[in-house]
């Protein structure tokens, strides 16, 4: 038994819209830690109160909850109050990264590259403004709920009517919606593990965009790692990922997503503080190229557990 980490709860499931993905990520990580000899146990907060962590003597929590309730700072704050060390970013970093709008505000203030955008509120959205919004944002717009992951509630639109429908759908998930200029080009992602930047991945899908189905269900999505960038451009992207992650107070481990336009310019999309960890997910893919097995990766993530963030 690996006693370095003590009794560990792998927290997965939860009640967010990303529950199914979380269950798969958490089970994969739990299995890997058990194989490595860690005293690890699954813990689904949808079924059990967090006070059981204290009652049952858990010393650390490896968070595999995606979306709200696990990735938005609320769980992190609860664990700090309970005095239990946990993986990944703290309260501030988690809350900021979960909010795509406030993340963009910070990046914009720091001069980091991000696409043009507008924000609409459920209480004041005027469907009649759709044509003006489409024109102002270059003719093609990505509609995104402010605080959802896994592309849930997202849509790519080109007309005022499509925009109105997509915004109303996004309002089912959040009271604020981000309308972002669509960047025509290729999508990249960079994973961060402690002080280490893993190789970038380039994704390609024949679908309209890299949506939930492309991420988790389709067999046609292609992943390129190494991504095909020159060493100089790979370093440029790595540096930008580190800056973007630090800007929102991210720490421990995470993933930063980008678009690259036809002129070679990178634009920041979002930060994920609890990325997917199924054996087909992006972080494990990059880790393999960097020489880390899934088991080693799970142990590295567990080593980011701390009480002070």
TrEMBL record:
InterPro entries: ATP-grasp (IPR011761), ATP_grasp_subdomain_1 (IPR013815), D-Ala_lig_Van_CS (IPR000291), D_ala_D_ala (IPR005905), Dala_Dala_lig_C (IPR011095), PreATP-grasp_dom_sf (IPR016185). It comes from Bowmanella dokdonensis. It is an enzyme of class 6 (ligase). Mg(2+) 1 binds at residues 257, 270. Cell wall formation. One of its GO terms (biological process) is regulation of cell shape. The keyword Kinase does not apply. Keywords: ATP-binding, Cell shape, Cell wall biogenesis/degradation, Cytoplasm, Ligase, Magnesium, Manganese, Metal-binding, Nucleotide-binding, Peptidoglycan synthesis. Residues 104-303 form the ATP-grasp domain. GO terms for molecular function: ATP binding; D-alanine-D-alanine ligase activity; metal ion binding. It comes from the Bacteria. The lineage of its organism: Bacteria, Pseudomonadati, Pseudomonadota, Gammaproteobacteria, Alteromonadales. Mg(2+) 2 binds at residues 270, 272. This is D-alanine--D-alanine ligase.
């Amino acid at each position: 038994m690996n006693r370095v980490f003590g009794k560990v709860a792998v927290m997965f499931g939860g009640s967010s819209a990303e529950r199914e993905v979380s269950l798969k990520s958490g089970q994969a990580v739990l299995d890997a830690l058990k194989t490595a000899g860690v005293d690890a146990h699954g813990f689904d907060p949808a079924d059990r109160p967090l006070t059981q962590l204290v009652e049952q003597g858990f010393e650390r929590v490896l968070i595999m909850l995606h979306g709200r309730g696990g990735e938005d700072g609320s769980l992190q704050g609860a664990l700090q109050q309970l005095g239990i060390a946990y993986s990944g970013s703290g309260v501030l970093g988690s809350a900021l990264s979960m909010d795509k709008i406030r993340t963009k505000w910070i990046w914009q203030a720091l001069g980091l590259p991000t696409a043009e955008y507008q924000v609409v509120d459920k209480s004041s959205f005027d469907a009649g403004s759709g044509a003006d919004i489409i024109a102002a944002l270059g003719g093609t717009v990505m509609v995104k709920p402010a605080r959802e992951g896994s592309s849930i509630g997202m849509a790519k639109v080109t007309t005022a009517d499509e925009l109105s429908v997509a915004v109303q759908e996004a309002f089912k998930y959040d009271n604020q919606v981000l309308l972002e200029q669509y960047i025509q080009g290729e999508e990249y992602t960079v994973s961060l593990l402690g002080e280490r930047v893993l190789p970038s991945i380039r994704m390609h899908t024949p679908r309209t965009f890299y949506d939930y189905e492309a991420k988790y269900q389709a067999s046609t999505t292609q992943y390129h790692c190494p991504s095909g960038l020159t060493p100089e451009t790979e370093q440029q992207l790595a540096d930008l990922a580190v800056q973007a992650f630090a800007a929102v107070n991210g720490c421990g481990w995470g993933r930063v997503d980008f678009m690259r336009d036809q002129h070679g310019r990178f634009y920041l999309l979002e930060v994920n503080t609890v990325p997917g960890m199924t054996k087909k997910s992006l972080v494990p893919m990059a880790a393999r190229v960097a020489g880390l097995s899934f088991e080693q990766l799970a142990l590295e993530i567990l080593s980011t557990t701390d009480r002070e963030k």
